[in-house]
Amino acid sequence: MKKEDLKVTSIRYFETRRGLGYKCSTNIKSIEIWNDGNGGGTYLVGYVDTKRLPQPYNEEQLENLIDDYEFQQTASKKLLEKIWGYCKHTHNDQDYKDLQEFSADELKEILNDLKTQ
């Protein structure tokens, strides 16, 4: 079985009486990252097939995965705004929705192409 690095693919935040909790989906469908918002740590949930993971993940590493995802999302939004500034008068709403599906790296390439035209 191929080993895969764990990556966050989406985050859902929720309020609890004691704080903010979150549930993160990952690129490995059977594994989620959770923090219940009640003052405990961040942990893996689901069927954690250690044969698929290249390493065990501690709490700090899980938090870093979440930070990486959030950074990518923020970077993507900023890049998307810059790209849309170049082409909003020549493209439609569906094109904008389509752009939202690209990664930050892909959006960087698009922006660089637009700047050189």
Computed over alpha carbons, the radius of gyration is 18 Å
Instruction: Specify the overall morphology.
Output: elongated
Distance between the termini: 45 Å
Low-confidence stretches: none
Could you explain how this protein is built, in words?
- With 117 residues, the chain is an alpha+beta fold.
- It folds into 2 domains: 1-57, no CATH class; 71-117, no CATH class.
- Helices cover 42% and strands 22% of the residues.
- The chain contains 3 helices and 4 strands, in the order ββββααα.
- A 4-stranded antiparallel beta sheet has the order 1-2-3-4, with helices on one face.
- α1 packs parallel to α3 (104-116).
Give me a quick take on this structure:
This protein is α+β, with helices and mostly antiparallel strands and 117 residues long. The chain folds into 2 domains: 1-57, no CATH class; 71-117, no CATH class. Helices cover 42% and strands 22% of the residues.
Observed structural traits:
117 residues; alpha+beta; four-stranded antiparallel beta sheet; 3 helices; elongated
Topology:
Elements: E1 8-16, E2 19-26, E3 31-35, E4 43-46, H1 59-87, H2 93-99, H3 104-116
